[in-house]
Amino acid sequence: MAGEIVLVALIIIGLIGRSPIIATAACLLLAIKLVHLERFLPTVERRGLELGLLFLTLSVLVPFAAGKIQTKDITAILTTWPGWLALLGGAAATYINGKGLDLLRIDPQIIVGLVIGSIIGIVFMRGVPVGPLMAAGITAILYKLFKLLSG
Prior knowledge:
Its main location: membrane. The chain has about 150 residues and is mostly helical. Helices cover about 80% and strands about 0% of the residues. It has 7 helices and no strands. It starts with a helix and ends with a helix.
C-alpha cells in the first residue's frame, strides 16, 4: 500500500511540476501494480533503462535516417569552434552519464534522491528533467569530489 501512495504522490507532483514523464511513469507503474502484474517489475527494473536509452538514441538518430543531416553539415561541425564545443560537450555528457549508470548499478536506492532532487529542480528552478542518468552522473562527480575534499 505504501508503494501505491508514493506513486500517487509522484503523479500529483509530476502534474504540479509540469513533468509529464514522471507523472506518466508513475501512472504506468501504478497500473502494473493495480492489475497485479508485479511479476514484471524486476524485468522493467533490469531492462527499462536500456530500453529507454534505445528509444532516446533512436530519436537522436532520426535526422540522419530522414536525410535532414547531410555530409556538408557534418563537415561544418568539424570546421567551426561551436562544432568542436558541441563535440566536446557530447563526449563529456556521455562520460558523465556512464558514471551515473555505474552509480545506479552500485547504489540503486539513490534514485529516490535523484527523483526528489529532479522534482525540486522542476518545481522551484523551472528546470527540465532529462532523466536519471545525467542526475546520477553529476551525483557521482559530486560524490567523488566530496570524498576527495573530506579525505
